[in-house]
TrEMBL record:
Classification via PANTHER family: CYSTEINE DIOXYGENASE, CYSTEINE DIOXYGENASE TYPE 1
Name assigned to this protein: Cysteine dioxygenase
Matches recorded under Pfam families: CDO_I
Gene Ontology terms, MF aspect: ferrous iron binding; oxidoreductase activity, acting on single donors with incorporation of molecular oxygen, incorporation of two atoms of oxygen
Record keywords: Dioxygenase, Iron, Metal-binding, Oxidoreductase, Thioether bond
Positions bound to Fe cation: 95, 97, 149
Family designation: Belongs to the cysteine dioxygenase family.
Keyword Glycosyltransferase: no
Cross-link for 3'-(S-cysteinyl)-tyrosine (Cys-Tyr), residue positions: 101-165
Lineage summary: Bacteria, Bacillati, Actinomycetota, Actinomycetes, Kitasatosporales
Length: 186
């Protein structure tokens, strides 16, 4: 996701440093995007929900839109780690990504709708292919192409998720390849 601006990484925790080291071990294997995302997701899962994963500042939301806290950006650009804080009702537009992503829910629920781009006469439209609700500890792995989705906090409390992207999104400014403004199933 990450359709709002991103800033440089701030202070981190011991547990996050451990997650970064385990992620680096996977990314440095140089596997294709899909297995990389899946294996990084497996390393991410045990840390989700741990009270010492994030600093209090990294759990703060924004009343205007979902908020991103960049937790780590690998110096060689191989990956970056972002915490996203969603207040109830906050959502992304329909989008896809510049790189693979492993996303895990740290707190609350993320409601995801996946789409497929289908021809529609001389244009195209977005067909909803599935709805997924991920709760605490659950991980989703995505790799382009075919990673078009929208995400929202459909719960009543604050939701918090960790995202590992296969790119340095502080250099790119975003993890989003494209925002889709086509007719879509809502
Ligand atoms: Fe996304």
């Amino acid at each position: 996701m990450t359709t709002t601006p991103v800033a440089a990484a701030g202070p981190t925790t011991e547990r996050l440093r451990d997650l970064v080291a385990r992620t680096r071990e996977i990314v440095d294997r140089g596997l294709p995007p899909e297995p990389t995302a899946r294996l990084v997701g497996e390393r991410l899962a045990p840390h989700l929900g741990a009270p010492d994963l994030l600093t209090p500042a990294q759990c703060e939301g924004d009343p205007d839109h979902y908020r991103q806290h960049v937790l780590h950006a690998e110096p060689d650009g191989g990956f970056s780690v972002v915490a996203i804080v969603w207040l109830p009702g906050q959502r992304t537009p329909i989008h896809d990504h510049v790189a693979w992503c492993a996303a895990g829910v740290h707190q609350g629920e993320e409601h995801e709708r996946r789409y497929q781009l289908v021809p529609d006469g001389t244009s195209a439209r977005l067909l909803a292919t599935g709805d997924v609700v991920n709760g605490p500890g659950e991980v989703a792995a995505l790799a382009p192409p075919g990673d078009i989705h929208s995400v929202r906090n459909g719960g009543t409390g604050t939701a918090l998720s960790l995202h590992v992207y296969g790119a340095d999104i502080t250099r790119l400014g975003t993890s989003v390849r494209r925002i889709y403004r086509l007719p879509a199933d809502r």
